[in-house]
Specification:
By secondary structure, this protein is α+β, with helices and mostly antiparallel strands. The protein has 9 helices and 18 strands. The chain has a 5-stranded antiparallel sheet. The protein has a 4-stranded parallel sheet with strand order 2-1-6-7, covered by helices on one side. The two termini are about 15 Å apart.
């Protein structure tokens, strides 16, 4: 079994611990250690299907043909020695990334999740299309750099708006800790010519009784409710961890069935879904993170998410 993740990753730690308890042999490494501290040797013979060879990090090694499953969770990019000048360093990094990723992706194994599917499934505009097709309600949305189009959308909504990033990630301002670009309330009076600077993702603000982080492993749902006690947390609960309370709930059967259809579209075995639940009890899909964090959910609720990962990777589900 391969676990490919950053060294400091609580979710990967928990999965490895569960696999160890099941006496499953595990090799864990970070692709950021390749090619300086990890050695890959892979060969493909003319008359034999599949890649054969070894991945070795100096502490453990595994034969590619013996790998049965891979837990791939946000590993770092390959790092090239600093004495390699540009543009050769960038070229070498791309070569290393493509070689390691694509050799592993070609293995006939159980993935959670295959990185190629992860990348496809992370595109938010496409997510709204597939979520709607799967039967989920989504917020009315617009992506534009046209101030007049944004004002027209605001007039149609005739209510509160929020603005969120199209692409996740953090803003590196040169300080010690990069800033998270959070979802925020947008007053239509703030829409001006500065909107033309880049694409903006606007949505109707959904009234919330509470929110749900729905973690799904191989179709099994684990629903954690997130209730905000401050206005800041109400808009984006990630911005005010002290203004939150957590509990568990049971996702409606119709939502679970739709989520499974959504995941089947991408061939995903894992997804971390964000929902709002309205005061009338309707579940509204915001987005799905195919490599979302979940260790905090298990720590706060006791939901056995790590065990579900281990069961799937071991092949018992």
């Amino acid at each position: 079994m391969l676990v490919v993740a950053e060294r400091l990753d609580a979710s990967a730690d928990m999965v490895v611990d569960e696999l160890n308890q099941r006496h499953v042999p595990v090799m864990r490494f970070d692709s950021g250690e390749f090619p300086q501290a990890v050695v890959l040797t892979a060969s493909h013979e003319a008359n034999r299907a599949g890649w054969r060879g070894v991945i070795d990090n100096g502490r453990r090694s595994v034969r590619l043909e013996e790998v049965r499953s891979v837990y791939y969770r946000r590993p770092g990019p390959p790092v090239i020695p600093q004495d390699v000048p540009e543009p050769y360093a960038t070229w070498a990094r791309h070569q290393a990334d493509a070689a390691l990723l694509n050799v592993m992706a070609a293995l006939p194994v159980r993935w959670l999740n295959n990185p190629h599917q992860d990348r496809l499934a992370s595109h938010k505009p496409q997510q709204l299309v597939h979520a709607t097709q799967a039967g989920l309600r989504v917020p009315r949305s617009i992506i534009t750099n046209d101030p007049q189009a944004a004002l027209g959308f605001a007039a149609d909504i005739n209510g509160p708006l929020i603005c969120k990033p199209v692409l996740g990630g953090r803003l590196d301002t040169g300080t010690q800790r990069p800033l998270m670009v959070a979802t925020h309330v947008l007053d239509p009076s703030e829409i001006d010519e500065s909107l033309r600077l880049t694409a903006h993702y606007l949505q109707e603000a959904i009234p919330k009784a509470y929110e749900v982080r729905l973690t799904v492993v191989d179709g099994e749902p684990f629903a954690c409710t997130i209730t905000s006690t401050t206005a800041k947390a109400q808009t984006d609960w990630r911005t005010d961890p002290d203004g939150l309370s957590f509990a568990t709930t049971r996702a409606p059967d119709g939502v679970v069935a739709a989520v499974r259809r959504f995941m089947a579209t991408y061939g995903m075995a894992f997804g971390a879904f964000d929902f709002a639940v309205t005061p009338t009890g309707e579940w509204v899909f915001f987005e799905c993170n195919p490599a979302g964090t979940w260790a905090w959910v298990e720590h706060r609720t006791g939901l056995p998410i790590a065990a579900a990962h281990a069961d799937y990777l071991r092949g018992t589900t």
